[in-house]
Amino acid sequence: xxxxxxxxxxxxxxxxxxxxxxxxxxxxxxxxxxxxxxxxxxxxxxxxxxxxxxxxxxxxxxxxxxxxxxxxxxxxxxxxxxxxxxxxxxxxxxxxxxxxxxxxxxxxxxxxxxxxxxxxxxxxxxxxxxxxxxxxxxxxxxxxxxxxxxxxxxxx
Length: 156
Prior knowledge:
- By secondary structure, this protein is α+β, with helices and mostly antiparallel strands.
- It folds into 2 domains: 1-30; 40-152, Glutaredoxin, CATH 3.40.30.10.
- The chain has helices at 2-30, 40-44, 59-75, 77-82, 99-103, 130-133, 137-152; strands at residues 46-53, 85-91, 111-117, 120-126.
- A 4-stranded mixed sheet has the order 2-1-3-4.
- Helix 3 (59-75) packs across helix 7 (137-152).
- The N and C termini lie far apart (76 Å).
- Residues 10-41 have low confidence and may be disordered.
């Protein structure tokens, strides 16, 4: 009788644990953007703004990241909230990221804007002028935002 009672207790405990941990995970999968459901076509269409850096990061590299973040967050906050734009900061010195050097023909640490259509990259642009404009916040941010709009429209 004791063994059957313990088994029942363990079974109940396992059920409680599964429900406790499973519910938030399931709920998180169902809610997107505070309850707004995103269609499958929206999930497959996205602009990704990449900032590529290495392990060693100088002051200028950090400034490029900061200004890129400002350009994206200030100019495209609605797109970020909707999930149709993403800012991705990637360390090229990690072996799993080395393919980006070839993919985007990177010559140095860079900003790249990629336009995904139906889950595949439709067009992209490397923003080489970030190094030239890094000492002028306004010009830098304007340049990045203009180039993002250009890629969004399919212009290169």
